C-alpha cells in the first residue's frame, strides 16, 4: 500500500529527546519493506512557542504560520536523521517535490507547506496528490471523542464517523496559527472529496501505527458517506 503517516509534533517532542524519533524510525523502516511511505511531521510545542513570540512582536497570522512551518521542517530533518539511509535526505517543500522524491523508493518526510495549512491538512492533501491508499494521523488522543476527554470524564470515543459529520463537529473551531483542535477542517474536506481511508489514533504508542496499517479496530476511522 501507499500510506501517508502524519505524526504530531507533540508526540515526537513531548520531551526534548530522541526517544520517539528512534521508536518511530524502527517501525517506519520495517513498514517500508512492504509499503510506500510518506511521513508528515507536525510542529508541536516548539512551533507554538515560536509562534507565541512572533505574535507578541506584532506579526500577522500568515507570518506566524510561516514560523510554524519552519519548525515543522526542522522536526522533519530530525526524523530524517533517525531514518538515515531508509529515507530520502531532503525535506520536500511542496507536494510535487514529495512526489518527485518518492521515485527513489525511499521514505519521504516533510513538514508544512504554506500558511493556513496545518500539517493535518498537508497530510490529507499529500495523500490525495500521491493517490495514497490510506492516511494515518497519529495524535495526542486515542481518537475523536464526543467532547474533550481532558476536561470531561464522560467523554466517549467515536470509533467511526463520516467526513460530513466530522465537518459538522468541527464547525466554528479556532483556526489561528499554532492552535490545535482535534482535526483540521481543510483535512476533512480533502478526505471527503477523495474518499480517502483515514484512521486517527494515539501516537504516544508507536505500535498503534502498525495496528492501523494492518486494519485493526483502533482510534477513529473516517468512513465513506
UniProtKB/TrEMBL annotation:
Q: Which SUPFAM superfamilies match?
A: Carbamate kinase-like
Domain Aspartate/glutamate/uridylate kinase span(s) in chain numbering: 1-202
Binding-site residues for ATP, renumbered to this chain: 9-10, 44, 48, 139, 145, 148
Q: Where in the cell is it found?
A: Cytoplasm
Specify whether Signal is a keyword of the entry: no
Gene Ontology CC: cytoplasm
Q: Does the keyword Cytoplasm apply?
A: yes
Q: Give the chief site where it resides.
A: cytoplasm
Quick one: a GO biological-process term for this protein?
Answer: 'de novo' CTP biosynthetic process
Q: What does this protein do?
A: Catalyzes the reversible phosphorylation of UMP to UDP.
Can you name this protein? Answer: Uridylate kinase
Which organism is this entry from? Methanobrevibacter thaueri
Encoding gene per record = mosA
